[in-house]
Every structure is written in structure tokens, then in C-alpha cells.
Amino acid sequence: MTAPEVARSLDAFVTKTITPEPRDGNPPVRIAETGAGMLNSIGLANPGRERFLAEVLPRLRELGLPLWVSVGGFSASDYAATCSLLEDVTIELNLSCPNVDEAPEGAAEIVAACRESTQLPLYAKLSPSAWNIAEHARAAESAGADGLSLVNTLRGLALGGDLRPVLGSGTGGYSGPALKPVALAAVYACANAVDLPIVGIGGVCTGLDALELIAAGASAVGLGTILFADPESPARIRGELAAETASRNLGHPLAARGLALQSSRETVV
Predict the structure, then answer these.
(1) Could you give the C-alpha distances from 187 to 28, 35, 116, 181, 202, in angstroms and in order?
(2) 85 partner at 20 to 30 Å CA-CA among 34, 127, 158, 266?
């Protein structure tokens, strides 16, 4: 399948992260396979905000899909300025890239700045590295986020046969099947803590993986690493999800939403 064909097999398309200025990204090697996933250290390589808006976004609209634009930056004003220029998209704020320097402001401050700059839907993408991720979710909700994306990658390291780091930058973001329990825990904790819609992301390879994230509290599920290994996975996973749903006598996958949650709304961290 070509890249546009893969994209059109999805229900929505999320862009790579856009920053105000063009970025070449981190030095190669940028991707390394591991036993249960992969590491990437792309370093937010992208054409920059101006070129993205003028050239890339119009081409993406030709896909005919709902578009989510991942917005990054190195200060709250970076994020807010990009958000103010976007139209007719959902914005995903990349607040937790593990292989670049972060903005000095906290996630809540960035969300608040972006909320002042746009009325478009804002989803905060949070790091699974925070033990108290539920508190981060509450802060994002209070600052004006419309939803959460859970989770971003974890920082990891791969060594080669010479016992030196494989990636040019040393460490990178770890994704793939082994990330699913981490994503489940984050979705579960945040769904208990806030009333925001959650996109569950991390280690989805099968329809059952997707259903489990929904049961933990997600209202949508994102695919990532699996698309490298199996570009036709969206259709397969969609079919498996329908079968898993039917086998449990649920009329729709979202009928499973929150089944794993505690009956009370006590904090889970």
C-alpha cells in the first residue's frame, strides 16, 4: 500500500509534530528495532510552520480525512502562535517528546496559552514517565484542554554489537507492543481522574488491544508502530475489534468504554 492509501484506511490522520522553525532533526541512526518494539530519535524533524501551512497541510486535506495537527515548540508562545494560525483541524499538543529539549513552562501553562489563542479542539499528549499522570491530566483539564492523548513514547536505549548506542543521539522514544500495559495504566488513571475524552495510544497491534484501551477509558484508539510492520493493519484491527465486541455481546466497541474502571471516582496514580 502507498502512504496515501494507508492514511485513507484510517478514520483520522495525525501529522508529525510541527515547530515554528524548520528542524533537520537528530543525527542518524534515527530508528532502531528492539525485541518488542522500536526506538526512534527523529528529533521533531519537520519543514517548519510556514511551509507546513503553505504546502503540506493543503496536500493532507486532499486525503478527505479529519486532520489532527501535532504542535510542538520550545516555549508556550511557540505553541500558542502555531495554534492561532490553524483552521478546521484538531490540535494535539506534543507536550512530552522524549528526545528533544522541553519548553520551560509546564504542560498546564502551555495548554492555557494555546486555549487563549484558538477555539479549535485541543488534546494534550502526555508522557507516561510521570508517576502522577492523573494530576497532569487534571491540570490540563483545568487549563482548557478538550481531551487527552495517552501516551507518548518512553525514553529508551539500544546497544549494538560493539556495546555502543545504536541511535545517533544515544536514547530515543520507545514504542511498540511492550508499551501497551503502560498505556493502559495511564488511560485507566486519567479516566478515573477527569471527564475528558481520551485517545488511547501505545502498543496496539490487534483488535483486542484496541478494545482493552477502550475498556480502560479511551474513547478512540491510535495506531503507530504497527503501521511500519503491517501497513494494512487498520482494516485488520477494525475487523478484529468488531469480532471481539460481538463475542462479548456488546453492540458497539464504545459500549465497553470504562468497563475496567472502578465504580468510584477515587484517584488512581
Answers:
(1) 33, 24, 27, 10, 10
(2) 127
Taking CA atoms, 117 is separated from 50, 83, 91, 94, 105, in Å, by 17, 7, 12, 16, 16
Rounded CA-CA distance 98/166 in Å is 16
Residue corresponding to grid cell 484517584: 267
Contact 146, 119 (CB under 8 A): no
- Give the pLDDT confidence of 106-156 residue by residue, as tens digits: 999 999 999 999 999 999 999 999 889 999 999 999 999 999 999 999 999
Rounded to whole angstroms, the Cα distance separating 160 from 48 reads: 33
* Model pLDDT for residues 225-269, shown as the tens digit of each residue: 999 999 999 999 999 999 999 999 999 999 999 999 965 444 444
Taking the model in full, what pTM does it have?
Answer: 0.94
Angstrom CA distances, 32 to 97, 166, 228, stand at: 17, 7, 12
CATH homologous superfamily for 3-201? Aldolase class I (3.20.20.70)
Q: Grid coordinates representing 195?
A: 471527564
Paired with 166 in beta bridges are none
Just list the catalytic residues: 97
What are the extents of the domains in the chain? 3-201
Neighbours of 87 (CB within 10 A): 8
Q: What is the pLDDT of residue 268?
A: 46
Note the pLDDT of residue 262. Answer: 61
pLDDT digits (tens, 9 = 90+) for 17-70: 999 999 999 999 999 999 989 999 999 999 999 999 999 999 999 999 999 999
The three-class DSSP label of residue 93 is strand
Closest C-alpha among 113, 117, 135 to residue 126: 135
